[in-house]
Amino acid sequence: MPYFDDDGNEIDMAAIAVPDLCKRCEKLDDPDEEILCNLNRLDQRGSDDFKCYAYVCMYGELEAVIIE
Asked: Could you please report the per-residue DSSP string of 27-47?
């Protein structure tokens, strides 16, 4: 599905970096979440502090141990 900026230019989603948080999310390859995830990444591109309130860690409770 193509995405467009406010000027009508198509945005190349391959050029938008996937944050580390997304790489650990179990929704990453879920086709039902693709649009929401892409729009969230587009909205926050270039931001140093990426936030996602739909994030579900694929490691479950182990994430706290992995991050610390």
From this structure: TTT-TTTHHHHHHHHHHHTT-
3-state secondary structure of 34: helix
Between CA 60 and CA 49 the distance in angstroms is 22
Beta bridge partners of 3: 11
Chain centre to alpha carbon of residue 22: 5
Mean pLDDT of successive 10-residue stretches along the chain, which has 68 residues? 89 91 93 93 90 90 60
pLDDT of residue 5: 86
Residues 6+ apart with CB under 8 A from 63: 24, 57
